[in-house]
Design a protein that fits this description.
disordered N terminus; binds 4-fluoro-L-phenylalanine
Amino acid sequence: MSEHKTTTFSSKIGLIMAAAGSAVGLGNIWKFPYIAGENGGGAFLIVYLICVALFGLPLIMTEFLIGKRSGKSAYGAFQTLNGNKRWNWISWLCMLTAFLIMGFYFVVTGWCFSYLSEAVVHVFSGLDTEALSAHFVEVSSNMPRMVVFSIIPVVLTAAVLWFDVNKGIERLSKILMPLLLMMMLMMAGRVLMLDGSNIGMQFFFRFDFLKITPTVVMEAMGQCFFSLSIGMGALITYGAYMPKTQNVTATSIQVIVLDTMVALMAGVIVFPAVFAFGFNPAEGPQLVFVVLPAIFEQMSFSWFSSVLFFALLCIAALTSTISLMEVAVAFVSEASGGKLNRHKSVLIVSGVVVVLCVLCVLQPRLFDYFDEATACVLMPLGALSMSLFVGWALPKNGEKGVIHADKGIKRWFRKIYIFMLRWIVPAAIIVIFLNSLGLI
Ligand code: PFF
């Protein structure tokens, strides 16, 4: 039996913060601006928001409900609910996705740690636009340095999981998330005073229908799943930890609102600065790493601001990596039938992750491939499978229907939820897939 049944979060707010901690991370601050920048700014934003509205609530609720109903992580949940092994492959899909995401996510977290260490010793002061771009290339292609800096967050994440999942995540998220939000507000305030920042605001908010291509739609859907942590079982695990009385719908909405706010704020910080300083919005994965130091140069208390921000960014990344690694750890320990305890599972998973990170550092094409494949293929596939599982494979109102895990759901809302899950979500994912492949 899993350890999860006995472990619950000590408070409802603790769970919300932990789930929001999983959602809010590098996906919002690093990935969202660079993907939006590459995909037409405003055109991307509108499709992204539609995806969040369409997929966010039904899919987050589904993962929470699967976890809450089964009391298991992604490994045992499907079998427990279904009574047989027919849908177990979804848990394997979740685990594969978790490992591939960790492979590149820890490398980006390593960039953050590296930038934090450099902010402390004033490396960025006086560097102009070109020098900042050159600096990123220099840092990220320094293999030994990047290997070391990627392993640091792996070790920190493993340490949090080693001791106790709840206390670690709860304590961190409750204090630091509001601090991150405040810091971002201050940065947005400063950036909007720069000359030329209005062009960036237009780029981010002006919606040009003609720029919406199948690729933009596919990227927006992928970003939505990645940013909300859906389609790979992370939220199933948190569902299993959920206090019995927690309202799943309200919790899901809170996570979506927080996550979307942070992504929007990242856009409002990055794009005005991109245009004010003369960067290219389609710069790619390095975008925020060249733009942010330039912003801090313009702020009062620039040393303090940059150190504090990069520290908060590292912590936001860690609250996400904790949830990612937890999927794999719970999987390994449950799949071994109890032979591997939590500690051994943490060690095994960390070892594999270190190998993947090193491969991603040595081979940047692998990094891009993991990034693209997880968001645009594996997570949508995971989400599609989970919606079919709950929408079609489980009896709707029977004892096993996950909906019973949430007593607070109103009858009318339950109908809408099931309808979305059975028809709208799977159809939309399939149409977007086929469309991006040029088949329709
Ligand atoms: N949602 C995280 C982010 O935006 O940075 C990334 C992530 C975390 C994806 C956990 C998936 C996951 F299970």
